[in-house]
Design brief:
CATH architecture: 3-Layer(aba) Sandwich
Order of helices and strands: EHEEEEHHEHHEEEHEHEHEH
Shape: globular
CATH topology: Rossmann fold
Radius of gyration: 16 Å
Number of strands: 12
GO biological process, one term: biotin biosynthetic process
Cofactor: Mg(2+)
Low-confidence stretches: none
Keywords: ATP-binding, Biotin biosynthesis, Cytoplasm, Ligase, Magnesium, Metal-binding, Nucleotide-binding
Pathway: Cofactor biosynthesis; biotin biosynthesis; biotin from 7,8-diaminononanoate: step 1/2
Mean pLDDT: 96
Enzyme class: ligase
Number of helices: 9
CATH class: Alpha Beta
């Protein structure tokens, strides 16, 4: 089992955080000590003396050990826009993120790093998700939001991960709609055209139930 994974998505709002926490639960059920990290987050609210992102707070809540918020999310920006805009004059440092990731690795059996947006989305003015995943040298798990257009997004994302010479450990399908037309046919086509295992299908839920969702993944 890898000591960590990089979680990326076919787009923004495709269920990366739910998928990350689901994977954390599945690994914890195997007896592993697991933590999640969201290095860069935009769209934060002022909470208990600092800018905090709801997704990152969930990762903090579901970690196997108690962690300070900044250990999970070193770069938190207020504006709900692309991080390279939200960061303003703040330089998002790869060295800072890598150092914090290495600390988390010493505290856990497996560290899941959740990117922001899609594979080539920027994390700052001089860093994107692909560059971060390459620097961390983590196997990648691709979260595919199942909706119209997802086949193209999934295949392009997988192609880009492969071109970066990183291992795509698998992909997760997230059912974003209660009743997507031709869901099974779309799922089957992606399975046939992506040379990475389908790790699970997360069914549509109004509210998260991570124990239930963990029953639908294999890692």
């Amino acid at each position: 089992m890898a000591s960590g994974f990089f979680i990326t998505g076919t787009d923004t709002n495709v269920g990366k955080t739910w998928a990350t926490i689901t994977l954390m639960h599945a690994l914890q059920q195997q007896g592993q000590k697991v933590v999640g990290m969201k290095p860069v987050a935009a769209g934060c609210e002022w909470h208990q003396g600092g800018w905090k992102n709801q997704d990152a707070m969930w990762l903090q809540q579901y970690a196997s050990i108690a962690l300070d918020y900044k250990q999970i999310n070193p770069y938190a920006f207020e504006q709900a826009v692309s991080p390279h805009i939200a960061c303003g004059e703040t330089a998002v440092s790869l060295a800072v993120i890598r150092k914090q990731f290495q600390k988390l690795q010493t505290l856990s059996d497996c560290t899941l790093v959740e990117g922001a947006g899609g594979w080539l989305s920027p994390l700052g003015q001089a860093l994107d998700n692909a560059e971060l995943a390459t620097a961390l040298q983590l196997p990648v798990i691709l979260v595919v939001g199942m909706r119209l257009g997802c086949i193209n997004h999934a295949r392009l994302s997988y192609q880009a991960i492969s071109q970066a010479k990183l291992d795509c450990a698998g992909w997760l399908a997230v059912q974003l709609e209660a009743d997507m037309p031709a869901f099974a046919a779309n799922l089957s086509y992606i399975q046939d055209t992506i040379q990475a295992p389908l790790l699970g299908v997360l069914p549509y839920l109004e509210n998260p139930d991570f124990d239930f969702l963990a029953e639908h993944v294999k890692i």
